[in-house]
Design a protein that fits this description.
The chain is mainly beta. The protein is 12% helix and 49% strand. The mean pLDDT is 95.
Length: 257
């Protein structure tokens, strides 16, 4: 899928869309001047051999919000290929992109290979969240056998400013149960705020966070927040106040359903 935004008066509007296969995009009506796009996987989930590619560009002076209609699901895969997800984000001069997907849920036997790269202009802004849930706690599911590769890279004016990568194969539930790893947490989220106002947000955000979360200022314009939670409900309870503070517009309505 390829999509972009451009400026029309005071509003951000669609500047081209190409989509195919089960990867679709919806554009709900909003009261904001930002362009909101809702990504939809009509296949219902990701399994081995699947491939989803997104290229999104926030044009100069625009605000583009990308979210998902529901939680993504990484289902059991046969031995062999991973399910691949590739997201390429470009944020132009004076533009802002809000990357706000709902949770990715890992199922027993899943194999997910996900990469995201964001390229920002010197004065561009990015709010990024990547929440992940480790199995269905309400059903007593344990992740005894999964494969996971995840990489997030952010560049500003061509300079690397943030890189986060993890790779795991095996019994994830046992690994997360270790006190020095996740102490039994069933969900986690990474939030990155790359903007000129990042430094001013550090102390207010820290006051919002539970004991199982932390916030660090890596640069004056780069705030990174990590959250561990017992389950998806507790994760949302910790995430939503932070996202609302860092986003001047209301969160997408699909987050509230």
């Amino acid at each position: 899928m390829q999509l972009g935004s451009k400026r029309l008066g005071q509003r951000s509007v669609l500047d081209g869309l190409r989509q195919s296969g089960s990867f679709k995009c919806l554009f709900p009506r909003t009261t904001s001047d930002a362009l909101e796009a809702v990504l939809l996987n009509t296949a219902g989930g990701i399994t081995g051999g699947d491939a989803f590619d997104l290229t999104a560009q926030a044009g100069a002076g625009t605000t583009l919000t990308l979210t998902t209609q529901a939680c993504e699901r990484a289902y059991q895969a046969r031995p062999g290929p991973y399910g691949q997800v590739r997201n390429q984000l470009a944020i132009g001069p004076g533009a802002r992109l809000n990357w706000l997907p709902q949770e990715t849920i890992l199922f027993e036997g899943s194999a997910l290979d996900r990469q995201l790269r964001a390229d920002l202009a010197e004065d561009a802004s990015l709010l990024l969240v990547e929440p992940m849930v480790f199995g269905r706690a309400a059903m007593g599911e344990r992740l005894n056998r999964i494969r996971l590769r995840d990489r997030i890279e952010i560049r500003r004016a061509g300079r690397p400013v943030f890189l986060d990568a993890m790779r795991f194969a095996g019994d994830l539930s046992a690994y997360l149960a270790r006190p020095h790893v996740a102490n039994g947490a069933g969900a986690m989220a990474l939030i990155v705020f790359a903007a000129a106002s990042a430094e001013a947000q550090l102390d207010p955000v820290r006051r919002m966070l539970p004991d199982s979360a932390g916030a660090s200022l890596l640069d004056p314009d780069l705030l990174v927040i990590r959250i561990l939670a017992a389950d998806s409900f507790e994760l949302r309870r910790a995430m939503l106040p932070v996202l609302r503070r860092l986003n001047p517009d209301p969160l997408p309505r699909c987050w509230m359903i």
